[in-house]
Backbone:
């Protein structure tokens, strides 16, 4: 329901034009302009969505790292998504944040999308239900959600400028649908995207007014994506808040009102919406913020990771019995250095991370667990372990960072505890500094040659014991924030070190505006992986597997693959990981592969391994979730929220590169499983698929009013989770429709031997199609019910008036 702002008008009337102009753009990177005259404090906004980073990108203020969006969606669990939102609210308040920039509810149009890991699903209904639950979980705990990016920001290539050509039906039925549901859930804010739709950039696009405001009754604030406001035309459009601020495109705003280019009433409307948002989050005097429910952070992160873990294939080797195994090989770079989240603005800095190796050693405490890296996955420089570095000034673990003006004057210093550093807002005077100096004392644990260096966008020099070893200028590809700033190139030099003999390392970076955002800087100082012969690494891993009763290989992507600002170019596992799995499987030792990726990857060896578990980017408790699922301490809770292809060539949408600036959504309403069904093509694993450790019978399904009631029995010997999925079909339709489409779903947790009935609402709108308005075609639909889009044992005839 649209809220009134009448009671806020007296506050609006107290404001000068200058104050109003300041309020509708940020005061800085993450906050809005405070106006104490009317009792308004600054609002703080923060990424999200899988945790809350807070206004500083700083390891000294760690955040809960929850599983990424695709893992959340794999739970198919609306209640879990609500609690995930509530957990984000609790984190937000702990960090002084009022507005979380999430959930990301663009669709998995193509598995190549760089931010696929951050989005939920290829299906609009699954995305809409879970996205809306996240919004309610946040907001019922007093913190604003910002579903993003409105709209059609489903891939990253040329994201600032790409013009998406999408027909109205696909826009309504697919891409807008999750936003519509988020507004129904009461979203207090929405983020407008960088891209254009049908020729108009989203911060100026009519879609902000219609359907968002006029049809859906959105009463919140449209926040721009960072720097997405391009001109004063965004004022007349329903773009409410330009972030970060002050926005260069609106520098002339006050003058533009005075000379009649811009209507003051348009600004007033935005101000009222921002005041309403402030009232909702308790930033306006006299308004109280709701206090979030208490959170057991790591228990929730572990539960969410388990519920998002998909057992793709199992010959019966799983679950493993810890009491029966004495020798286990754990193999893979990601087993030790797991990726718990994707790259880009969604990054949060967890206090600690449980790797699969750590957790498997815990779970198999009485077994001999042997680890081999097998194949190098992470490319480029990785930060120094904290235990190996000492701050030369304080003597504590860490490093000293100094910010120097052009004349060498020290402007600011920080004592940090990590050598992967990002300044993106916060207190450091990046803009005023000419040189940034990092100083630390590194104590090697092994003797030999290391590849010492940095990853960054700025020219850098590295000294070891005052001797210059590296002096280089990174070559940047593209100018996008993500590519140039959050995933910059690495430069290294070979340096000989001795175990136990500390060396003083000083690195100096010259600040230049090189494709990044002014006032932002990122640099990682550290060591690149050793260049051991890849065949030798594989041979060592195979030898470890041969000597073991079971081999667990954790494969995955690296930070250069799934991130923001660019798309993937293929679906392959990086490096020699496919060869590694083949070699391990060829030993004859039962091989369990755990995939640590936020999006589908090609698994060409699938038929030769005993089990495959998709663990996604499982958050800081990823390792525990993997061990719980492998040992059967927990049921694998996940079902695929997106079709898993066998090869890139089979993927329905495999080109996300704009042509002359345009990206054509020519497939219309058929993305994801809808396209696979239309083409009668076989994926590696279908949408909705995921195995458990018990057995089920599908007993009955029938209609009661506007709901379907489905009865299932757990016929196995242990408690299990079933995700009951309901798809509609309409063979005699007068319009072109998908072969079938998801209309509802529910989770059933059922004890061994028990029967459960779930009730799934199917409002008429789920059957409707868009013709310029929503039309429900009368006649008979078939509702097909089962455990995936390809496993549908029950059918219900559904007649619609
Ligand atoms: C991303 C947004 C994010 C914003 C602030 C942008 O580059 O697209 O999702 O919220 O940065 O970090």
Residues:
């Amino acid at each position: 329901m649209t809220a009134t702002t009448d009671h806020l008008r007296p506050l609006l009337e107290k404001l000068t034009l200058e104050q109003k102009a300041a309020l509708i753009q940020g005061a800085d990177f993450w906050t809005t302009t405070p106006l104490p005259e009317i009792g308004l404090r600054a609002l703080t906004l923060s990424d999200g969505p899988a945790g809350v980073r807070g206004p500083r990108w700083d390891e000294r203020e760690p955040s809960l790292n929850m599983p990424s969006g695709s893992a959340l969606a794999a739970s198919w669990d609306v209640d879990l998504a609500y609690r995930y939102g509530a957990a984000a609210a609790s984190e937000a308040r702990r960090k002084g944040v009022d507005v979380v920039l999430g959930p990301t509810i663009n669709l998995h149009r193509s598995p190549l999308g760089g931010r696929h890991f951050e989005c939920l699903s290829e299906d609009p209904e699954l995305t809409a239900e879970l996205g809306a639950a996240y919004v309610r979980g946040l907001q019922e705990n007093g913190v604003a959600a910002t579903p993003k990016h409105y709209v059609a920001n489903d891939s990253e290539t040329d994201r600032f400028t790409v013009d998406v050509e999408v027909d109205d039906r696909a826009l309504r039925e697919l891409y807008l649908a999750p936003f519509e549901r988020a507004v129904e859930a009461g979203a207090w804010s929405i983020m407008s995207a960088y891209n254009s739709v049908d020729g108009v950039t989203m911060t100026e696009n009519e879609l902000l007014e219609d359907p968002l405001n006029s049809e859906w009754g959105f009463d919140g604030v449209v926040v721009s994506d960072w720097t997405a406001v391009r001109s004063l035309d965004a004022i007349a459009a329903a773009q409410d808040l330009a972030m970060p601020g002050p926005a260069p495109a609106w520098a002339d705003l006050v003058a533009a009102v005075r000379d009649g280019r811009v209507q003051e009433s348009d600004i007033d409307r935005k101000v009222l919406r921002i005041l309403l948002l402030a009232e909702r989050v308790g930033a306006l005097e006299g308004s109280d913020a709701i206090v979030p429910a208490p959170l057991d952070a790591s228990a929730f992160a572990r539960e969410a990771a388990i519920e998002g873990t998909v057992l793709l294939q199992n010959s019966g080797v799983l679950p493993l019995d810890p009491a029966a195994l004495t020798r286990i090989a754990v193999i893979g770079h990601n087993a030790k250095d797991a990726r718990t989240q994707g790259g880009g603005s969604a990054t949060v800095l967890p206090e600690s991370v449980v790797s699969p190796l750590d957790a498997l050693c815990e779970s198999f405490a009485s077994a001999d667990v042997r680890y081999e890296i097998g194949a190098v996955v992470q490319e480029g420089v990785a930060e120094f372990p904290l235990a190996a570095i000492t701050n030369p000034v304080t003597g504590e673990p860490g490093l000293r960072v100094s910010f120097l003006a052009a004349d060498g004057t020290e402007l600011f210093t920080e004592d940090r505890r990590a050598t992967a550093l990002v300044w993106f807002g916060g207190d450091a005077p990046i803009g005023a500094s000419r040189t940034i100096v990092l100083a630390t004392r590194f104590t090697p644990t092994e003797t030999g040659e290391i590849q010492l260096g940095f990853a960054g966008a700025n020219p850098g020099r590295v000294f070891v014991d005052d001797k210059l070893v590296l002096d280089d200028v990174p070559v940047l590809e593209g100018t996008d924030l993500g590519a140039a700033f959050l995933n910059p190139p690495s430069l290294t030099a070979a340096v000989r070190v001795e175990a136990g003999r500390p060396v003083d390392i000083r690195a100096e970076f010259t600040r230049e505006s090189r494709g990044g955002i002014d006032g932002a800087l990122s640099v990682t100082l550290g060591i690149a992986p050793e260049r051991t012969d890849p065949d030798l690494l594989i041979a060592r891993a195979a030898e470890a597997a041969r000597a073991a009763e079971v081999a667990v290989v954790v494969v995955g992507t690296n930070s250069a693959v799934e991130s923001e600002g660019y798309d993937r170019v293929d679906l392959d596992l990086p490096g020699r990981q496919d060869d590694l799995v083949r070699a391990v499987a060829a030993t004859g030792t039962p091989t369990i592969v755990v995939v640590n990726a936020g999006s589908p990857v090609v698994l060409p060896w699938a038929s030769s391994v005993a089990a495959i578990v998709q663990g996604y980017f499982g958050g800081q408790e990823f390792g525990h979730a993997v061990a719980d699922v492998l040992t059967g301490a927990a049921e694998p809770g996940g079902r695929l929220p997106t079709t898993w292809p066998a090869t890139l060539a089979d993927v329905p949408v495999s080109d996300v590169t704009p042509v002359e600036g345009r990206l054509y959504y020519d497939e219309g309403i058929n993305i994801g499983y809808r396209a696979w069904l239309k083409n009668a093509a076989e994926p590696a694993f279908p949408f909705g698929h995921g195995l458990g450790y018990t057995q089920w019978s599908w007993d009955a399904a029938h209609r009661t009013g506007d709901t379907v009631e489905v009865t299932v029995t757990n016929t196995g010997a242990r408690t299990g989770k079933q995700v009951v999925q309901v798809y509609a079909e309409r063979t005699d339709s007068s319009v072109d429709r998908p072969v079938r489409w998801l209309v509802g779903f529910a989770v059933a947790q059922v004890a061994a031997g028990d029967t459960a009935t779930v009730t799934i609402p199917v409002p008429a709108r789920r059957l409707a199609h868009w013709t310029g308005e929503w039309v429900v075609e009368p006649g008979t639909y078939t509702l097909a019910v089962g455990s995936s889009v390809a496993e549908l044992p029950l059918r219900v005839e559904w007649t619609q008036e």
Summary: Residues 187 and 352 are 32 Å apart (CA to CA). The first strand starts at residue 45 and ends at 46. The chain has a mean pLDDT of 95.
